[in-house]
User: Fold these one by one.
Assistant:
Number 1:
Amino acid sequence: MGTQRSDRFDEVEWDEISRSRWFEPSRNTLGVVLCTLPIAVLGFYDWQVLGERTATFAFVGTEWDLGGIDYLFGFTLVLFAFYLVAPLYQNPRMTRYYWRQFKRNRPAVVSLGWLGVVFVGGLFGPLVMSAPEQSVLTGYQPPVFLSIDAAYVDAQTCVGDVVSGRCQGTWQHPLGTTQGGKDVLASIIYGMTISMQIAFITTTIVAAIGVSVGTVSAYAGGWVDETLMRLVDVVLSFPTLLMFLLILYIYGAGLGMFILIFSLFAWGGTARYVRSKSLSVSEAEYVMAGRLSGANTTQVVRRHVVPNTASSIITQLTLLVPGFLLAEAQLAFLGLGDSEVPSWGQLISAGQSDLSFAPWIVLAPGFVLFLTILAFNFLGDALLDALNPEAEAETE
Amino acid sequence: MSRQPTIGSKTDGRVSRRRWLSALGVTGLSALAGCSGEEGDEGDTDGGGGDGGDTDLIIGEFPRFGVDDLYGETVARTLARKAFEQSDHDYGFDGDDMVTPDGNQVELDIYHSAGQETSQLMAEYIGQELEKNLGIVVSVEAIDGTRFNNEYWTAEPAGGTDTVNGEEIEWTRPTPQNPGPQSVASNEAWDMSVVFGLNTYPLNPLTNEAFFDGATAAYNPVGYYPEFDATGLFETARQATSRDGLREAFVEIFENLAREQPYIMLVLGDDLVGYNPELNGPSENFSNGWDFPAWHVGDPTVSGSYDTVSAAGFSTLNPLYNTEAGAGTAVGRVLDQGYTFDDDQEYFPLLYDMSTENGEVWTFDLRENLTFSDPYGRVTAADFVYLVQAVHQSDWANTAAALSWEGVEVERTGEFSFQATLETPALLWPQSYDPLLYPIPRALLEPYVESEDVEGLQQDEELLELQFSGNLGAFTLDEWNRGAGTTYTRNDEYYLRDIDEGPDRFADGPFFEEASISVVEEQASRLGALETGEADAAGIPPEQFQSYEENEDVTVREIPTPYNRILSVNQRANGWQTGPGNPFQITAFRQALAAAIGKKDLIQGIYRGLADAHFTWQPRWSTFYPGEE
Amino acid sequence: MGFGTYVTARVMWAAVVSFIIVTITFLLLAAAPNPDVQRAATQAALQGGDPAAAAERARELRGLNEPLHVRYLDYLRSVYTLDWGWADSRSQPVTTALAEGLYYTAQYSVPWTILTILLGPLVGVYSAANMYSWKDHLATGFAFFGYAIPNFFFGIILLLIFGVWLDVIPVVYDTSVPVFSVANAVQLSIPVFVLVTGSIGAVMRVSRNESAEFQHAAFMKTAKAKGVSPLRAYAYHVMRPTLVPLSTTIVGQLLALFLGSSLLVEKVFGIPGLGRVTYNALIAQDTNLVLGATLAFTFIAVFGNLIEDLVFTVLDPRISYDDR
């Protein structure tokens, strides 16, 4: 295959992940800057001008209030749009080629579809449907086509009909309701937003730090390598969950703190992995050749080290995202999560004591969480195959 | 992390008598409760009622806020307007919304206990009701109970003076729970909270002095100033020489509390407990478990094991320092306390009988067949007198019962009798649980007393493992596994077998070879253990009450508790963060809040009808409950 | 630099790492108000004492009046002499509490770790050898299932099925059964199963992807051409190089899972191990025990990373000690 194309794509890939400063600004980087500005301005306006309790969009008359996490999320979305989606659009030929490779892996296509649903649901769901409201008199409504014993939901509180001592589900609550009468479907859709925020923000932070530290360390060598790797040792030895618990214990912590702590202590593995990969790559002959022909360090890293470690990075990241989603769900399950955030974990934890008679409260979000994590894994697997031309060449 | 009641023994009020709160940490008590069917709110506001007329709303002698005609938007807004008239600041309504003098929407925070389903549901329900009926926007926030207690509920005691009802009052003994006048803020600002419920002390309401005896009461985290003569009425109650006089004084106090709503009172519930259906003994009574040695499965023969579950582990079994109800049960299996109350709430002597002429001088008569384990020998009056004088009344030991013995003069009058003289007479002294004592050998305490070693006393092996219990309890402790619970073996020497009083069955009790309390933190697992028979008793959440009632493997009981569910509103300087002033300080505004929160839907929706509406600081079954007939 | 020197240097580095983390915990704690002091004041007030004096006494008792560096040195001394204080929420020394917890945690962690380390790479390499066959898909599917299903969610459901509905395992964990007994094996079977399905997926995935690269390597073709039996070829030429990058992930993975899983699995199955000791200490605001648990897990993590590094060096002869 032509090195030209491959380089082009992988360079873009690297851009998107690392957004390191020592690149001359490309068109996409300009786009990022242009799109980030209004977000920053809005954020500043929200922070400085508006009162703490005033909704961000009060001036256009909506109740939609933004928090710090929403701004960060918006920023990562811009990054992904310009460094992942835009390059794919700009290189239609390569895109088609990768799509053909990718399409052969059917579970991955399904996964991509599912993640698309979660992404769109998370992005637009809260705009088109109202947040799940508590309504204590309609608790434990069963999902449509299912029923629950009248000992739990009597004729008075059943939204549907009571048939032979069992309350029947209705389309009004397709996935039933919780103890407090919150609609499970609406809660799941609102949970998608949270999951997407966790996924996007954490991977961005982890990838940025991990890849920079890993390549710099491998390539610079010497005392820089030594220092960075010792730093990685510390980060890796850090029992992150425990540190988070300690901070929670001393100061209290919400979703923002969760994302920050977990991504700040999760890049150790990525950095190490990238370093060991690039070490072996940088000893390869073509890199030597490149050096001899006058390429400077930056160019070598950019043209050879990064493209050749991309597959490992993606494996690492796909393994990390579900880890974060799981960690959030676990904390919520333990009752240590941010209970103001309507995440899937919160829903599971709210329904755990009702599992024996109202299993949908746990099963529905549990299943969605399971599917999402599964989809991330399938997707990562397929990307690995599609982006690994070496393995591809061998099998053909 | 839901808090389950501790089950099946003479416990609640006894060990936990110094516990004001019902939801502190995991060791707190049941949040899940329910009571006496669905009548809840049939009582009309007999003392005047008020017809909901827009301007001339009449609050009766004993108003029942939150039900019938004292519930709803009209009443709530009328009361709120009345409050605004009394306020120095120009609050009002703009359409449906309550607005500040600047015209901003009134927005308040409400905290609930993190991880507690009931608490969260309640907070959100209150938020909805206040938005609907008073136009207040409420944001619901979760907080850990212990953190709330340390940072929001308490403050550095500052003291100070303030004018209360036209009188200059000085806070001479500020406490973290009442750090000073309303101008003294709590450590962290908060508006409203449902984190804690409080004890209503139905057997001896005099203990409620701690909450309501004037603005300087020992326990007043919200900064409430009574507008009625609380101090005077409590004084009258304390000096009453007959139960009628006592009742009269208390009824007046509770009518006033119903009107002033120092805390917005919401519901009172029972503990819902499921038992092994073959178990004879459990009753739906405040004293449930007092006759535990007579409980048996099937025939009254000694057999099997009595196994219960507890939602939380015990932090200590040292009887001198334990303040948890759960651990109290665990200690109670091995060590009886002085007395208990029977099914009719009458005094029942265990280790000692108490008698008095006028409520001032009380005589304690010990049973003569009590012994400690070797080498401590017989239990004598000297042991109790030493315990009180050298430990409880010392300035270094800080035992759980220290406050109970403050100002009480104790004197040995014979080998098996001693006398206590109170500063002021108290006819209901036993009911306050103050004179309850655990038997502790004098010889065990002496070394610590000599060196004033409080840590040594707290960490003493023999006290922690209850190795001195002799014949003083129904069982002996085999092992306390910190994470897993306690196991016991029957005590064949149990002194209660030889007493004259009580049920005949005591002569052969207890009817179990063994006993155990397992720490099982998951509610689902506790219920599973109950169903499979691994446990003989476990608490049940209200939403599953009906299905267990229909379940043949489980017998359900509703056991009254003294703890209430309240909405606390911060009447201190940092209590109303949405605008100037603090309307929470105005009685009419608190009444408006009480009238805005519908108790009927609350009970139906969250408590499944298994709770009682709470109008004043007593449960309905208390003899001191006002009104009714 | 010889191997011996390298090991010594690495061990010393581990000590430095532990020291850094210990310092960070100290700073975190020092920056926050001590709940014990507040509690002492509250208690004194409830019992009629003087809360201000009680708070002062509590501060003095805990040495909080000393200057920061004195407290820090004092703290370091007690940390490294294992003088970790008294756990108020359990009425026993912190070290005893942790040891008791570890006793129960080890009972399921040891079989869990062994099974993961044995089965993970095996299934991974097997899967790679049969890449894109139905066997690969089955193994991959299983790995993905195990990895994707949240441990606690899986645990609750299995407990509901086997404990409550089928009644084949006890719902309440029994601490009184001997460690090596059928009853213990039965009650630990489901937790271990849940944990192994959870951790095996990641290990298997990495080893599958890594070994996929090696099995097409030239040396593999050479070995095959020379007539080396497939089993031997895989063991020597695929398994071993696979283990190198794998070892960098496996220890990290296991350690990360260790705390999280011990917390959750112990909570779901009611095992009174280290995770639950930690969790309850947090809930009960028992500072000594929270600190002790933090330190215990820190030391375990530092030690695990030390082992990982040593294994890494031993396994991959290409990497000389000088590189590290």
Number 2:
Amino acid sequence: MSYQTLLDAVIKGDIKTAKEETLKAVDASQNAQDILDQGLIEAMNVVGDNFSKGAIFVPQMLRSAKTMQECVEVLKPHFQENAMTTKGNIVLGTVKGDLHDIGKNLVGMMLEGAGFNIIDLGVDVAPEVFVDKIKEANADVLGMSALLSTTMPSMSLTIKALADLGLRDTVKVIIGGAPVTRKYAEDIGADSYASDAGAAVHETKKLLNIT
Amino acid sequence: MLIVGENINTSRKRIAEAVEKQDSAFIVQVAKKQADAGADFIDVNAGTFVDREAEYLCWLVKTVQDAVDLPLCLDSPSPKALSEAIKHHRGEPMINSISLEKDRFDDMLSIVTAQPCRVVALCMTETAMPVTVEDRIQAGAELINRLTVEGVALGNIYIDPLVQPVSVDTRMGNAVLGAIKTIMNDFPGVNTICGLSNISFGLPARRLINSTFLSLCILQGLSAAILDPTDKRLMANLLSTRMILGKDEYCGDFIDAYQKGIINKE
């Protein structure tokens, strides 16, 4: 079955058509995981690429992400007990002392669209809170955001806390935020740096060897 | 309208390079251009250099004030960087910024009250970014009360309602505009200040959006702005908006700017 109409609807952010198409596919007894992978996630890949290229803008990206979320709600009851497979668990948050959340939220939305399971710890997240959640969720990736020069060192402290517990090699670390640079990421021993939500998806896939 | 020139900020690549190389000629040139374009204060920000922020901020203060006879807007969330930088500053600086977040208010307060200065106060709540007009008014009122109790003059307080992108939430423009209006109304004598560029994050044609937003802010009573004064179209828009709103006696500033070539012939 072709998901072209569904793909187009998600890319356009047409919630009504996308939900109808999702239902149609379910009624045609398509596998829910296939609808998710070949329809919704595939569409969000296109959206992410378009955003990275500067061909679309933040509101369009948000609209597509919202469309996908609504379709996932339609799909959820149709997954078997073994539930959805995800591409990986990502723990996300803005570091301790920092309340900025807009960029971090965009990153979370795009990663979710790309098929990852997002555990968003919100803002003002202390190193030990990150570490506990990474252990608990068996996270593949940690994404940290900081928007202030005074809170950036908390990224380094979190990485150090991971190392102290012998967990550093179990999880990839990506950082971002307006004052953060690739050089800073290298200096504190993060695995990667992302300049925006599109880049965050790209870097995450690269680190986890997902094509 | 008080203008703070925003161009000396190390989040801009060329500024970061100049600061790292201690290229004072380049920094001086950027400062002078802003002064010539009508800046009242020159903002200096070295926030991308986490470990060396204080050192670089001090260097920026000295470098800029050696060449330009203007006070500076010392831009950092770090009490350490600010208290160091103030020692090198001539005249009364603007401290950017204080907010209600847990430790930040107390740490900054001692700096702000140690010498005469102006202070930018962010409408951040203690635990989150503000969303609604009411969030901003509440934070603004508390900041004004707590600062004036400590002896800071109302006229030295610049409330920043915190501009957030309309691309993420289309209510964000009105949230700031409503807050400016109420704060200017409820606390006569206080100032309001905005950075403009956040409003257009995630959208194309950002200069157009920033410029339109500035006009609307001025309509609500905004009394200061952090912007690029070398952007001629933005300045022309600012000057004509003020004039239309009756804030430019005999249209003097507008005509001056025209005769100086800041506003181009059509």
